Amino acid sequence: MWIRSSMTYRTSFVVTVLGNLTVTGLDFVGILLMFSQVDSLGGWSLPEVAFLYGLSVTAFGIADLLLGSMDVLGARMRDGSFDTLLVRPAPVLAQVGADRFALRRLGRITQGAVVLCWALLSVDIDWSAAKVLLVPVMVISGAAIFSAVFVAGAAFQIFAQDAAEVQNAFTYGGTTLLQYPPSVFGKDLVRGVTFMVPLAFVNWVPAAYVLGRPYPIGLPSWAAFASPLVAVACCALAGAAWRTGLRSYRSTGS
Amino acid sequence: MYAAVAAGGFRRYATYRAATVAGVFTNTVFGVILVYTYLALWDEKPHLGGYDQAQAVTYVWLGQCLYATLAIQGGGAEKDLMERIRTGEIAVDLYRPADLQLWWLAGDVGRALFQMLGRGVIPFAFGAVFFPMALPTSVTPWLAFTVTLLLATVVSFAIRYLVALSVFWLMDGMGVNQVLMVTGIFFSGMVLPLNAFPGMLGEVVRVLPWAAQIQMPADVLMGETDPLRAFAFQAAWAVALLAAGRLLQSAATRRVVVQGG
């Protein structure tokens, strides 16, 4: 239904898709601009940074396509229309995901995948079976980790109804952070996104194995393969948070 | 009357306290991420764009401070204006004994002032406490900076007003909103300071109206440019864009049939 509704104004839809492709591509243009001035950033070359970028954006794009509508949750609670979702005989999470489902978000996945493909072709890697296998695993686990962040953010919004932007700090902020090498950031920040919000497992840690780079904050070498486990744990925690949030939800009554 | 409209714009945004706190948090997080990438970049190439590291850091936090103030990505008064045009409620505004453009400008100035105080100052102060910044110690640059901010607000509004009027013809604002977002982020210098853009591209982006929004205030604050030159640049764009908005507005009200509802 939401797909059909967005097709009603055709010119606008086309501009929207192109716009979406450009908006998400801008981060990469920013990186290209930086590399037009220097040869490496934090000791990483352009193909290596592009590899990080492609992984981060593709994984985030998938999560965003499925659950990106979460940020309208606060508005729905304020105007009371969230109650409608609660009485319908379908999982609330699925309904929120489908709410204002926007096909234009395919733009981000496409753009991320293009950069990822370019990076895979131009980066200097001694490929092995494990490394080849790790790439799709990273994308899927990464999408799951980002999805968990979206759901946890939605649960948080049940408590803090007007604070959708806090979620943006972790979702959009997270994907931006992961587009740059960990060597760029302070130790404490890297520790935070490894152990507190384990975004580092989306790309930094497994990519260190693929690229033959030192692991961030001296993690053991098996950590490169821990992404699926981390993803499962994150989803379980986020699911629990979401259920707790739903149980404690009080309608505005309007 | 326009002062009352501006005060209304201020109060309206001041109502959303949780949203303001959330915005402060988000701008601070993005500021931290950007500062580290800029420091890495300036480490590789010191004095890129004529800035030293402290100036690059100042630029980042200024960008985070002005991001909501100048509605760099859109989302100011033009958002409501587009909605009113789409639903046809604009007809009511046209009946009012007030100038349409000035009415919306006043509301947007009120909004900008609140976003500056409520949302901009704290990330900037956070940056100043935790990172080395290049801030002037005398009063004059701060005064000149205030003037550039005011002019930047008008230029920013004038661009968004033009974009909003396009909805008279397009009916739906989704697409143009995206264009606004792209151009705003890229040409205002949220991605990278405009003076660090290479070659021809750099020369072009530095004369576009978006340069009036972050680049000019930043350069005035840090003493990188002559304030009078910056004022002239900003004022010229403000006048040109407001005039264009006026032309488009009269074209729209003459030929467009307002949507009924």
From TrEMBL, chain B:
It holds the Pfam family ABC2_membrane_6. The chain crosses the membrane at residues 18-39, 59-77, 116-135, 141-163, 175-197, 230-248. The lineage of its organism: Bacteria, Bacillati, Actinomycetota, Actinomycetes, Kitasatosporales. It comes from the Bacteria. This is ABC-2 family transporter protein. It comes from Streptomyces koelreuteriae. The keyword Transmembrane applies. Keywords: Membrane, Transmembrane, Transmembrane helix.
